[in-house]
Amino acid sequence: MNEPTIRLEVRPEVSAFVDQVRARLSDLSDEDREELLGGLEADIAELVSDGGSVAELGDPRAYADELRAAAGITGCADGRGRGSLRERSTSRPVDERLTSVLDGSRRQWIELAETPALRGVWSFVVAIRPLWWVIRAWVAVQLVDMRASTDYWAKPVPSLGGPVVGTVLLAVAIVLSVQMGRGRLWPRSGPVRPVVSRVVLVVLNGFALLMVPVVLGNFPSYGVWEYRDILGGELPDVTPGLVSDGQAVANVFPYDAQGNPLTGVQLFDQDGNPLNVARFAGDDFNERTGKRVVTYPWLNGGRRLYNVFPLPRRDQRSDFGGVRADAWTTANPPYLPTPPLAVVPPATLPTPAAPEPTDAAADEDRERR
Amino acid sequence: MDSTQLLKGVLDLAVLAVVGQEDGYGYDVLRRLRAGGLDGVGDASVYGTLRRLYASGALTSYVVPSDEGPHRKYYGITTAGRAQLKQQREDWLAFSSAVTRLLDQTQTQGASA
User: Fold this and answer.
1) CB contacts < 8 Å between A and B, how many?
2) For residue A137, what pLDDT is reported?
3) Would the CB atoms of B48 and A57 count as touching at under 8 Å?
C-alpha cells in the first residue's frame, strides 16, 4: 500500500479524459456521478506516472459505459433525457454525434494549446478569459441599444432611453455573463453538460464575437463626445457651425443675383474665417428604413471643407455612420442636393443715379489732390 | 477462451479478496489484481466494481487528501463485505472444483475413448 502522503501531477490530458467520462455520465444525478468519479483522476494520474498513457484507456465514452455497467448503475447513456423512447431513438444520434464532435475538438484544442510553443500564450489567454465575459455582455447590451435607441451612435455605456437604464442593464448583463463563465449559471461552461447547453454556448459566443465589429462600427471614429457636444444638445454654450435663429444650419443654397442656383460657393466671414456648417448638422437617420443621409464636405486636397455650398449628401447604410474617404469612388457616390427653390427672384442694388464711372474716377482723383 | 467473460462473474470476489487483504485505492487494487494474474481486467470495470461494492455496503471508503493534485479514495472491507467474501469464496470453490472435476472426467473419458 502506498504512503498516505501523495503528490500527483495531473496532466491536462488526464483531466480532459475525466471530463469526457463525466460528460458521458451527465444523465446521472450529481451524487451518483461524483460517487462514480471519486478518485478516478488520482487513479488515472497514477497510471500515467506509472508509465501508462491515457490513450491506452481507449475511448472515454466506452470507458464511462464500462464504469457504469461495472458499478451496476441502471440507465446507461442511451437512457439519458426524459423523453419518450421514440424521441430518444430519433434524437440520440444527433445528440451523440454533436457530443463527440465537441469532445473531439476540445481534445484537439487542449492538445494544441499544451504544446510547448503555445503553452505560454494559452495560459495568458485563459487568464484574460474574464475580459471576454465582460465584452460579450457589453456587446449584448449594445445590440439591444442599437435596436431600441433612437441615438444613431453607440455610446460606451448604452443609454437605452435613460442614463440609469443602460448602466443598470449593462451591470446586470456583466454579472450574468461572468456567472455563466464561472459555470454558475446556465448554460455554464466546459464539457460536463448536456449537449444542448454546449451548443447554445458555442452559438452565443460565436454570435457575440461576430457582433463585436458591428458594434464597434457604430461608434463614430472621431470620438463620441464631439458628436454629443454638437448635436446632443445637452451642454454646448455655443452651437458650432452656422446657426440661423438658434438652429444649426444643415446646408446652404446660394443663388446668384439673377436668382439662379450656384454650386461651389465658398463662404467666409468678415475676418476671412470659413463659414462652416457643423459637420453633422445635416445628417439624417430614418429609423424605419435604417437609412442614414450623411453630409459630405468639399475637398481641397486632403482637407475637408464645410464652407463650400451646397454640401453634397450621401445615402448610407446605417452601420457606416461617418464620412467615408472612398465614398466618391463607390457605385453610390455623394450627390449635390436639389435646391429647395429652383429659382428665386432676382436681387438688385439700387443703382446710383447720374455719374459716369469715368467721372467718378476723376472726382476721386481730384479729391485726393 | 476469452477470460474477460469469466472475469465478469468473479470480479466482485476478486476485488473483495484484494481489498480484504489490505485497504487500497482504485489504481492500487487494479495493480494488485493484475499482479495476481488477472491481467485482462479492465480499469473501468475494477473502479466500477469498487463503487458498486461500496454502494451495497460491502466496502467502506475514505479520502486521503493530498497537498497537491486530486484526492485519493481508499476502500476497505466492512463486516458485511467479509461475510460476502466468505460466502462467495465458498461458492467459487464449490463451483470451480465442480467444473474442474467435470473437465477432468471428460478429459479422461476423451483420452480413454
Assistant:
1) 107
2) 93
3) no
**What was the ipTM of the complex prediction?**
0.75
Task: For chain B, say whether A25 makes contact (Cβ under 8 Å).
Answer: no
CA distance A75 to chain B (A): 15
- What tens digit of pLDDT does each residue of A26-65 get? 888 888 888 888 888 888 888 888 888 888 888 888 888 8
CA atoms of A183 and A33, how far apart (whole Å): 18
Q: Tell if the CB–CB gap between A6 and B66 is shorter than 8 Å.
A: yes
A48 vs A269: CA distance, rounded Å: 84
Reported as a single tens digit per residue, the pLDDT across B87-111 is 989 988 998 899 899 888 877 765 5
Chain B positions contacting chain A at CB under 8 Å are 11, 22-28, 30, 42-49, 51-52, 54-55, 61, 63-64, 66-73
Given B44, B55, B66, which is nearest A8 (Cβ)? B66
- State pLDDT tens for residues B28-50: 999 999 888 888 788 888 888 99
Longest dimension (CA), chain A: 129
Residue among B19, B22, B30, B47 with most chain A CBs within 10 A, to mutate: B47
Check: CB of residue A44 under 8 Å from CB of residue B72: no
* Cell numbers found for residue A22: 463525466
Please check whether residue A311 is in contact with residue A335, taking contact to mean a CB–CB distance below 8 angstroms.
Answer: no
- Residues with Cβ within 8 Å of A45's Cβ and at least 6 positions away in sequence, in order, are A8, A9, A10, A11, A14, B69, B70
Which residues does chain B have within 8 Å of residue A10's beta carbon, measured at their own beta carbons?
69-70
Distance from CA of B66 to the nearest CA of A (A): 6
For an interface test with B, which of A32, A46, A49 has the most B Cβ atoms less than 10 Å from its Cβ?
A: A46
Partners of A298 in the beta sheet?
A305
Pick from B22, B25, B48: CB nearest A66? B48
What's CA A69's distance to the chain center, in Å?
Answer: 49
Interval A351-360 mean pLDDT: 64
pLDDT digits (tens, 9 = 90+) for B53-94: 888 889 998 888 776 677 888 899 999 899 999 998 998 899
Which chain A residues are Cβ-neighbours of B23 within 8 angstroms?
1
Long-range contact set of residues A89-97: C-beta below 8 Å, sequence gap at least 24: A95/A195
- Half-sphere exposure at residue B92, Cβ-oriented, CA atoms within 13 angstroms: 16
